[in-house]
Amino acid sequence: MSSSRPFKVGVTIHPQQCTIQELRDAWRRVDDLGVDSIWFWDHFFPLYGNPNGNHFECWSLLAAAAIDTRAPQIGPMVTCIGYRNPDLLATIAATVDQLSGGRLVFGLGAGWFERDYREYGYEFGETRDRVRLLKEALPRIRSRIQKLRPGPAGPMPILIAGRGERVMLRLVAEHAQMWNAIGSAEEYARKSAVLDEWCRKVGRDPREIERTANVGGLSPRAVDEWLQAGLQHFVLRVAHPFDTKDVARLLKVRDS
């Protein structure tokens, strides 16, 4: 396993099928291990297991973790643009950033989990409708952040998660400082090249956008494959009962 290229290690803690105390224990434990980032997904119901099991709200957890952790970055992986007014979302994010001392990454996505929309009264529509909503919200979010007092405490980089080559990756090039995607290392490398091309078209230096991905089951060979694909920030999934062995193993490689 090669660690000749520096990389970061983050953790998405799944806020479902557990108690709030178990969640707090989990984020404190990964924080003590020395992760670079701690994330929660933004849903209202479990994504697997008992569909009506325990589930906790993303931004409330981030506010708590903001004052309970020291990890360099915390954030939503990712917040769904359709669940909150964009100006309100910017205000929530800036407040959490203040609580964290300037460590928040503002992770954004178009959304996909139909049950969240249906049960909470949001319009689900087609994929293109949700992507259009994100496209329209991004300028509003950036404008609102400029107007807020006191505003964010730190740089509050925008992370956009998505793989769509015609619209999503262009939005990343236009608005984001970080990009996240899921899939194979091979597919990631190809999407990353598309993002580089969008950066050239809109006048961005591709190196300004940190490459992150949600990954799992990392063998030594897989770590090398992801690094060769251009990944800079591994984000591991940690689910109840919140076993952190894989996280500790990858952190050893990061630090070797």
How would you describe this protein?
The chain is an alpha/beta fold and 256 residues long. The protein has a single domain (8-255), classed as TIM Barrel. 44% of the residues lie in helices and 16% in strands. It has helices spanning 20-33, 58-66, 86-100, 114-120, 127-147, 168-175, 185-202, 220-228, 245-255; strands at 8-13, 37-40, 73-76, 79-80, 106-109, 158-161, 178-181, 210-215, 233-238. It has a 9-stranded parallel sheet. Strand 1, helix 1 and strand 2 (37-40) form a beta-alpha-beta unit. The model has no long low-confidence stretch (mean pLDDT 97).
Give the secondary structure arrangement, pairings included:
Blueprint: E1 8-13, H1 20-33, E2 37-40, H2 58-66, E3 73-76, E4 79-80, H3 86-100, E5 106-109, H4 114-120, H5 127-147, E6 158-161, H6 168-175, E7 178-181, H7 185-202, E8 210-215, H8 220-228, E9 233-238, H9 245-255
Parallel strand pairs: 1-2, 1-9, 2-3, 4-5, 5-6, 6-7, 7-8, 8-9
Helix pairs in contact: 2-3, 3-5, 6-7, 7-8
